[in-house]
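Supplementary Methods S3. Input chains for the assembly prediction are listed below.
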Amino acid sequence: MREDRAINQQLHSIGETEKQNLSPVNQSILKIWGPSRLQGNINISGAKNSALPAMAATLLSSGVCRLRQIPRLADINTMGKVLSALGAKIKQNGNTLDIDASNLDNPEAPYELVRKLRASFFAIGPILARLGVARVPLPGGCAIGARPVDLHVRGLQALGAEVHIEHGMVNAYISGSKKKLQGAKIYLDYPSVGATETLMMAATLAEGETIIENAAQEPEVEDLANLCIAMGANIFGAGTKTIVISGVPKLHSVDYTIIPDRIEAGTFLIAGAITNSEITISPVVPKHLSAVISKLQSVGVEIIQEKFDSLRILPGEILKSTDIDTQPYPGFPTDMQAPFMALLSVCSGSSSVTETVFENRMRHVSELNRMGANIRVKGNHAIVQGVPKLSAAPVIGTDLRASAALILAALAAEGETTFQGLQHLNRGYEEIEIKLQKLGAKLQRVDQVKENEISPASV
Ligand code: EPZ
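Predicted structure tokens for the full assembly:
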């Protein structure tokens, strides 16, 4: 089969990890027929990067916590398994989770789960604050970077914990009879989202006041603080560079709705721009998307805020090049870099894209070039020379946002694209196929085995 030969060539060019990922289970592929013209409204799910730390925060509570708008994603399932392994009871009803961590009894998170989901490492803060001891495997690197946790560890040590890393395990414990963390002043060398969240959660049950300086200001950090405040915590300044937490003896149950996913929202705005379509997305918090909206406007599309929580994108005449530098919030989000590069690949002129947050986040480039894009990369810097149009090709996603970029490119490309990498997409986009089909995109999930039975020509 032609495609098998093409896919095998790619397997040769893509690293071992992806090969392992392409076990039979992951052989479902997505076929996308372009170019598409989209229209209609899209419902934006709750934010993955809010849901994950919010689930960890429920470990701080001695009551039952109800979390709403939780997207149904592979990562959420993995986090659920981590919490269950620690002794929490979880009930799911659609996008609502009831988590009861009142009988938290096991301080050790399972390696197999933490290896799969880096964000589960953030639970080390709540476990240590609740039990006075925590053992969490080092999450290890991933496709986009080494992802060290030194800032988390140093912050916990500043809060008075003894932390030793042995055999790939981070062992943290609080000596002394009180088993309480002590408030402290912590300056983060880099405004890490995860480190800010881990330390903010740990400090909620510490004795005294903690000040986190050079903190991450992401909306997900602010959302986590609002959840903890609703559980009875004293937190000031979340969303700014300086967060002040006054410890309290315990936190109580809560019923909390997380924020919409600004990265999913940004991805759908780009789906509208790259297909010259008019679509509406909601619910969104427009302020959370300021950097993305401003870059979309400089490319030449129009974004209208219809209501307080919805945005409409109108197609631009000619899409023009622009430059992107990823930065911590409120700068341009690194999670939007790959999807935006897909758009820039069909914008006339030359755009420069610089990735400053992660050291290895340009892996979508070779696949976009396979679709006829003209992108040159040097380290973390790419020059995107716009081309009139993209052409369909078999492509493989290497991580979540790289996969989203390839789907967007396929919506604009001429012909039938075969996308492999659904295991990445399922981690961060709730029902993306159904949502795109609802907008009129022509795409279908196909199990390799049944491939010969289905093709648009014969439908
Ligand atoms: C969060 O990851 C998000 N994940 C990421 O989204 C997002 O890309 C990232 O923040 C940046 O916005 C979740 O919220 C679950 P960081 P996190 O700590 O917290 C270095 C997606 O696609 N660093 O802010 O892990 C680190 O190596 C994912 O949804 C240290 O050096 O990101 C990186 O270069 C991908 N030491 C930089 O800081 C540390 O202890 C930013 O990482 C911690 C981080």
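Residues 101 and 189 are 32 Å apart (CA to CA). Residues 1-25, 450-459 have pLDDT under 50 and may be disordered.
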